[in-house]
Write a structure and sequence with these properties.
With about 200 residues, this protein is mainly beta. It has two domains: about 80 residues, no CATH class; about 90 residues, no CATH class. The protein has no helices and 14 strands. The strands form three sheets. Strands 1-10-14-13-11-12 form a six-stranded antiparallel β-sheet, with no helix packed on it. Strands 2, 4, 5, 6, 7 and 9 form a six-stranded antiparallel β-sheet that branches. It has a two-stranded antiparallel ribbon with strand order 3-8.
């Protein structure tokens, strides 16, 4: 599994504290004709009260996109991804926005046990698939930092062929991560971009 790179975004895993994952989500508006595809598993941000795909690893992460609904030509539609530039009415994104949620996601290069719970990571903002509707996001392994970054690797996904202690199997490991760069982790309200240096972070 982890000997080849096949980035497919952030998949819901569990609620921290061993709580069950209810796969519940919140609905947020999408601007009609928003000109970028958003795929299931993409990290999204809030821009002026609407959902957009993140464009930078400095963006505040609202949550993980889980599909959408909209009305086109008077007909309700449900989709695994938001088709770019779709002119519709009543467009809403399903977003998993629980700050205690964890996710399963693949790294684009080798990660070691020493990285777990020790560093934050940027993400690769990859293109998804309009066939499957799935994201192309992953963890950017070489970006490990003790500073601010979108996600933190907390464990290795426990499946056969994904043993981080085996050199061949840790080439592109599948990790469990939590999102650290979210508005819920800051005391004051901050914008979705460009405000991280001035924000005061909580410690949980």
């Amino acid at each position: 599994m982890s000997t080849s790179k096949a980035l497919n975004g952030f998949r819901p895993s569990r609620i921290r504290g061993s709580g069950a994952n209810s796969t519940g989500y919140s609905e947020y508006k999408i601007s009609s004709a928003y000109a970028t595809n958003i795929f299931t598993g993409d990290l999204v941000r809030n821009v002026g009260g609407t959902v957009e795909r993140i464009v930078s690893t400095t963006d505040m992460v609202l949550g993980v996109f889980q599909g959408c609904r909209y009305v086109a030509n008077g007909e309700p539609k449900f989709s695994k991804y938001w088709p770019a530039s779709t002119s519709v009415t009543e467009a809403y994104a399903f977003v998993l926005d629980d700050p205690t949620a964890t996710y399963i996601v693949q790294a684009d290069a080798s990660v070691t046990a020493a990285d777990l719970n020790s560093f934050n990571f940027d993400v690769t903002i990859g293109s998804g698939s309009t066939v499957t509707g799935l994201s192309g996001f992953g963890v950017k392994a070489t970006s490990r930092t003790a500073g601010v970054a979108p996600v933190r690797a907390i464990s290795v996904y426990n499946v056969p062929g994904n043993n981080i202690d085996v050199a061949a199997e840790r080439a592109f490991p599948v990790l469990e991560v939590r999102i650290t760069q979210t508005p819920d982790r800051f005391i004051s309200v901050v914008a979705s971009t460009g405000a991280l240096a001035d924000a005061t972070s909580t410690t949980y």
